[in-house]
Amino acid sequence: AVERTLSIIKPDATNRNLTGKINAKFEDAGLRIVAQKRIQLTKAQAGEFYAVHKERPFYDELCEFMASAPVVVQVLEGEGAIAKNRDVMGATNPADAAAGTIRAEFAESVGENSVHGSDAPETAAVEIAYFFSGLELVG
Ligand code: CMP
Fold first, then answer.
1. CA 64, 71, 113 angle in degrees (round to 5)?
2. pTM (global) more than 0.95
3. Which residue of 6, 64, 86, 103 has the smallest Cβ count within 10 Å?
């Protein structure tokens, strides 16, 4: 089925001007960028986005990092987009990420891992709605 997924290009990647190289990986994989904006999150906004991780030991560090520089939030659309995006990103920890994936090529650590992608249809819907209105999604 054609799906949409929420993607975030994280501060470590925007700081290193990797937005274009990362977008090329998405587009080469057949993912269409149907919405995109560069924004500066506050720590509180990052915390709300990552609320499911509130009890994790890395939560505070994660929120600080996500608010440390601009991020690019985007909606990717395509056949099986959620799984396809996760394939293109590679494993959360770059040490475990397959060759050619975004995290293998660009990520600096498990925390500063260049990209986020929704993990399931339900979370994709919630995460897309957190950043975009229907009017901003241009398939
Ligand atoms: P992401 O897919 O954005 O979802 C939650 C994030 O938490 C994850 O990517 C990592 O960047 C981050 N994370 C996971 N494990 C750790 C960790 N051990 N230390 C710091 N950050 C982590």
1. 70
2. yes
3. 64
